[in-house]
Design a protein that fits this description.
Length: 498
């Protein structure tokens, strides 16, 4: 998941009830992890969990040692015992272990009797540095411990964050929680982008707290293959052009970061990893009248449709509503293009040019196929007005999912046919969230049920569709679903081809 690795560790090395995917665990176990502060490991043993492995820390004359927190006699927790003369003593039957993990004393055994060599708990590499206790679960670390000279010479500042539980997959933990490089720049080196200057920012010191506000730029890759963000954009150019793809990206400050990354990190000469085009908003092949209606940046797929219809010589109307002429994307191209006579513009700031939804809907010819794309409020208003026109066939593409007002749903069982795994999806959880929490990667983009990226084959079970992508016929087939939003019926058993 993070680096290429040949999996040679035996299955028994994984902790019991491990929540990580095996491939993730094997890789993460090979790195050094801080598990406690030096002050926490004093005269008594300390129990910690690292990658679901129970670990006991204890201080000897030679420093802090780490071992699996299981006594080899009856499986009791060694951390419930004590440390005497540098030896870890089990609190149940008094078995004594030295810093190398060797059992050196058994009270019930006659003096001088040999101690079985198998009475040896698994030891882990352990170091004390920067005021922290570090543990590596693998026999050989994949990398050296981080070098922090500012901490060693006292010129740096140490900020300790209290321990807390993270309910996330291994990849999500490392990428978004354990990475101290998130402040003030996110993922710069891992995504290979050039350095970016960060504006100065103030740090406010309070009682045991440090607060700051800083603009953080997340520069992402555009492929799900390596765990970066995956975004889908409408192609603007004519479908007959095979030498280029033309897209338009509106910068959304309140979005999830994809548009900001494109604006801030992509320039002429940048190389992007892309997938093959996929048409989720197709033009129907029919003789019915065609009307195109775009609102704002929703013109991107509509413009491509207009070019295609014009190239085929098929008649159509093109209606384009925006807030003002100054905020109309592709205005010059629309007014000077080969289909300019078919275009009707509307602007909110001009009373004489405002878009009248009721009038527009009333004048549509029976049987018209209306293709609609734009902001959520605009699309909702048009769709509501069309409820009185069942003779109109509406085709829509959403940029963001409309508010469905649906509840959290009921729990159900999720079965993965390929792996034989069974999981429970709780109320308020999505299938995608449950899969990611168990280290199962799935292609995803919008996570709102509008793009179709996470479309998954369903082998059995009743589906509660909550997407805005599938047609009524596709839903009725019962053999596919969008796992980012749709779910199984209450207490059902849903079987996916995963």
């Amino acid at each position: 998941m993070f680096v290429s690795a040949k999996n040679t560790q035996p299955q028994d090395d994984l902790p019991l009830h491990c929540s990580f995917a095996r491939s993730d665990w094997v890789i993460l176990a090979g790195f050094w992890h801080p598990v406690a502060t030096s002050g926490e490991v004093a005269d008594a043993p300390v129990r910690v969990h690292l990658l679901d492995m129970p670990v006991v820390l204890f201080r000897t004359r030679d420093g802090v040692k780490a071992a699996k927190d299981v006594c080899m006699h009856r499986g009791g927790q060694l951390s419930l015992g004590s440390v005497c003369d540098g030896l870890l003593v089990c609190g149940f039957h008094g078995f004594e272990y030295n810093g190398e993990g060797t059992c050196v004393g058994i009270p019930a055994l006659a003096k001088g009797s040999p101690i079985p060599k198998k009475l040896r708990p698994r030891n882990f590499q352990c170091r004390e540095r920067y005021g922290l206790i570090w543990v590596c679960l693998a026999d050989q670390a994949r990398a050296e411990m981080p070098g922090w000279p500012q901490i060693e010479d006292g010129s740096g500042t140490v900020i300790r964050i209290p321990s807390y539980e993270i309910k996330a997959s291994a990849g999500r933990r490392v990428e978004n929680y354990n990475d101290i490089a998130h402040v003030p720049f996110l993922h710069r080196n891992s995504f290979g982008w050039p350095p970016t200057d960060i504006a100065p920012y103030d740090v406010i010191s309070g009682d045991n707290t440090l607060s700051f506000k800083v603009d953080i730029l997340e520069q992402t890759r555009y492929s799900g293959e390596f765990g970066g963000q995956l975004r889908q954009y409408s192609l603007l150019n004519n479908e007959r052009e095979t030498d280029r793809y033309v897209i338009s990206v509106l910068r959304e400050e309140a979005g999830r970061g994809g548009s900001r990354s494109m604006h801030g990190g992509v320039a002429e000469g940048s190389a992007l990893r892309i997938g093959a085009p996929r048409n989720a908003f197709p033009l129907e092949e029919s003789a019915a009248p065609v009307v195109l209606l775009a609102g704002g940046i929703g013109v991107t797929p509509i413009l491509a449709m207009a070019r295609s219809l014009n190239a085929r010589g098929k008649p159509f109307e093109f209606h384009f509503a925006t807030r003002s002429a100054a905020r109309t994307p592709f205005l010059a191209e629309v007014l000077s293009g080969p289909f300019k006579e078919r275009v009707r513009l509307y602007h909110d700031d001009n009373p004489a040019m405002r878009f009248d939804i009721g009038r527009f809907v009333d004048r549509l010819a029976a049987g018209t196929h209306l293709y609609l794309c734009g902001p959520g409020g605009f699309m909702a208003a048009v769709s509501e007005a069309l409820a009185a026109r069942p003779d109109i066939v509406l085709h829509r593409e959403y940029f963001t999912a409309p508010d469905s007002g649906q509840d959290a749903g009921e729990p159900f069982t999720l079965a993965l046919a390929q792996s034989g795994t069974e999981l429970v999806v709780a109320a308020g959880q999505s299938i995608l969230e449950v899969l990611q929490a168990h280290g199962i990667d799935c292609a995803t983009s919008c996570e709102e049920g509008i793009c179709g990226t996470c479309l998954t084959r369903v082998l059995a079970g009743e589906i509660e569709h909550r997407d805005h992508f599938l047609s009524a016929g596709e839903r009725a087939s019962g053999d596919r679903m969008l796992i980012c939003v749709s779910r199984g019926k209450a207490n059902a058993r849903l079987v996916l081809d995963l």
